[in-house]
């Protein structure tokens, strides 16, 4: 069954995920809802409420269109449209006035005759967002995934930036890896854990180790497939997101989102669905301005969820006069709900060695006792605490003498492992 929900109610989509055999689409505009209803494959049911402050006349127009095409319609008017509740019930629409997302989800399940599943998803979801390219989004995704893997966690990385799939070269993903874009084209009936699992790429070079490390798996959107099949519609992405979030076996799902957040508000949807948004924040003027624009957008569309946004500061490049403490104080004054996650130092030598290596190798392997590695492990530990993750391994630490020895030799004595992927 396919259900469209038009709502800004925080956490409603998350509660609806407890039902079996249900694909949920969450468009943010009524014209998107209308296009889906008028399409060749209309949904089975539609839920509308007044939490997005849409005019009541437009809500009625959408409800009428849906009923004309045979779509079941459910309305919830807890806010400004509450006076129209009796009118909706008189027209034969199942209706209520409720602000609690858990109560609304239970009511919807009863109306649709759905059975509860095993409960809400067990894995946390974070979106790494940015308002411009080259800000360090893919870099942050890579180091966070590797840092969490070293704590014994199972991580799924979803590359949803199909216009510029930076994770493909970073992790040496071959062109033969399955593309989830093929699955999206098959339709909502396949957007469930059973349908998604065969499209997850599990490379050998990010498997678990004898030391107890976890694994990193991938959902990749091939650039070639993206060109051939055009673009992914926002409602399709949202429906696929709910199927991905319901996957079992992962402690954390990291979504690498595209920078055009107005046309592809993927980070906004993750936040509205109960997830966390991490924004890489270099202190340069253009970079911090882009972060501010994205935070303003998130505050407009999910004002009650801004405390689940966090800033990952990145030390400035050579020549930038602004410092991380100055920029951190600026954001603290303007967005007091947003907390910092930590600061990553620049490590150009380690980054260059990793890029030039024949196969995949992490910067944490090239400089295990470096200042950079220590910062990554502290950031990963802070993230575990905030998300309530339970690592099976303690945070890696280096002794003073190991750090001094590594600094004196510049890590030049490090022997590179044999590449896993040529």
From TrEMBL:
<keyword id="KW-0547">Nucleotide-binding</keyword>
<keyword id="KW-0067">ATP-binding</keyword>
<protein>
    <submittedName>
        <fullName>P-loop NTPase</fullName>
    </submittedName>
</protein>
<dbReference type="Pfam" id="PF10609">
    <property type="entry name" value="ParA"/>
</dbReference>
<dbReference type="InterPro" id="IPR027417">
    <property type="entry name" value="P-loop_NTPase"/>
</dbReference>
<dbReference type="InterPro" id="IPR050678">
    <property type="entry name" value="DNA_Partitioning_ATPase"/>
</dbReference>
<dbReference type="InterPro" id="IPR033756">
    <property type="entry name" value="YlxH/NBP35"/>
</dbReference>
